[in-house]
Design brief:
The protein is α/β, with parallel strands linked by helices and 393 residues long. It has 3 domains: 68 residues; 52 residues; 237 residues, no CATH class. Strands 3, 4, 5, 6, 7 and 8 form a 6-stranded mixed sheet that branches. It has a two-stranded antiparallel ribbon with strand order 1-2.
């Protein structure tokens, strides 16, 4: 027995050293890729240099040598560097483990899972492995949910989608609440994913309170649809922060009261308002819209007048940011992927299974965000203003 334990310890030590060696090689390759991207080595000044390095972010990577943890990936100041390494080493967890988790959560027997995974990876995965994969994902997500937030996030997006969960023998809707922030350097990051019985203000207040407790600060603008629960939670947990009503949702609300025969005409007039960059010009177009359509479409114009103020909040911010801070499109893309991937499950057996799979899909769908800057924040920094949220740190 002692001999077996010794041999196992030696094996583990060798594997660890191999992974360390692979990690060192990969990080060297990443540095070479960055030098090629910038056309200059570290701290090298050349006439043809195309940018500057901007620190690192860490990422795990599964390779034939095993899982490489905390691989340091260089980042350039403009956020344009993209490495080819991650295409060469497709994460095993992105295929096999994800397939296992989806099948497990949807009630597929371990025998069938073993057959499918054997076809996918030539490795038969049994009951214990399935449970271990699910447990490891839950533990990883718990650590992610509790991680401290050490940056400022001037922009915060909030929204929810729904999943069907078995509750007392019947299917019921479970809200999946997601918060995405744009940090002080202009990179997007999923900050929270939570499930709730509904989109009540208490659920959003709990989500925001949790973010603040973890260190959320610097928020200047929250972008969401016109949900009373979100607005109440923002007012209570992030006092003094501006609120932007999603323009896409707002236009849909207005157009829902316009007959199909006039839909195109009214839609074009609405779009014209949101194409301008100056608040003064937008206000003039707003008045023209009311005057032009007020008599024909009284209900639509009433909805328009009630919501246009919050739909134009983004105009107080840099023009280069308008296209990305006036809608919740960044969240809609995540939700589309969640829906696509959970469609095969149908009704989840319980809340935990729904939360685990949906959270994993959101996190994996947003992995590449760290590779490319979403917004250039210099213009926003030049317009800093006193704000209770800004002084929380």
């Amino acid at each position: 027995m002692a001999q077996e334990e010794f041999e196992q310890a030696v094996k583990l030590e060798v594997e660890a050293r191999v992974r360390e060696g692979v990690k060192a090689v990969l990080e060297e390759v990443l540095q070479e890729e960055m030098s090629e991207h910038l056309n200059a080595d570290y701290r090298e000044l050349t006439p043809t240099r195309k940018g500057e390095r901007n620190g690192y972010y860490q990422r795990n990577l599964v390779t034939p040598a095993g899982k490489i943890e905390r691989l340091e990936v260089p980042r350039d100041r403009e956020g344009e560097f993209v490495t080819e390494i991650f295409e060469r080493y497709k994460r095993i967890t992105g295929s096999v483990e994800e397939a296992v988790l989806e099948m497990y959560l949807s009630g597929v027997s371990t025998r069938k899972i073993a057959g499918v995974t054997a076809a996918l990876s030539k490795v038969k995965i049994g009951k214990d492995t399935v449970s271990r994969i699910a447990r490891r994902l839950e533990e990883k997500q718990k650590a992610w949910r509790e991680r401290p937030l050490e940056k400022e996030y001037p922009y915060l997006y909030l929204d929810a989608t729904y999943l069907k969960v078995n509750w007392g023998g019947s299917a019921t809707n479970l809200a999946l609440l997601v918060a995405v922030g744009v940090d002080e350097e202009g990179f997007r990051e999923v900050l929270a994913v939570e499930v709730a019985g509904g989109e009540k203000s208490a659920a959003y207040a709990s989500l925001l309170r949790g973010l603040v407790d973890r260190g959320l600060c610097g928020v200047r603008l929250v972008i969401s649809d016109d949900h009373e629960g979100i607005k109440a939670a923002v007012a209570g947990e992030l006092p003094g922060v501006d609120w932007q009503r999603c323009v896409v949702h707002f236009m849909r609300n207005v157009l829902s009261h316009v007959p199909a025969s006039a839909m195109t005409e009214v839609a074009e007039d609405l779009k014209a308002i949101f194409k301008v960059r100056r608040e003064k010009t937008a206000r003039v177009l707003t008045e023209e819209f009311v005057e032009l359509h007020g008599e024909r479409f009284a209900k639509a114009v009433s909805v328009f007048e009630a919501g246009i103020g919050s739909a134009l909040t983004y105009l107080r911010y840099p023009g280069s940011h308008h296209a990305r801070i006036r809608t919740t499109n960044v969240l809609e893309r995540l939700f589309k992927e969640v829906k696509r991937r959970t469609k095969v499950v149908g009704v989840f057996p319980n809340e935990t299974s729904a939360s685990t799979l949906a959270t994993e899909i959101v996190l994996r769908s947003s992995e590449e965000w760290a590779l490319k800057r979403y917004l250039t924040m210099d213009a926003l920094k030049a317009t800093e203003k006193p704000n209770p949220q800004l002084s929380r740190r």
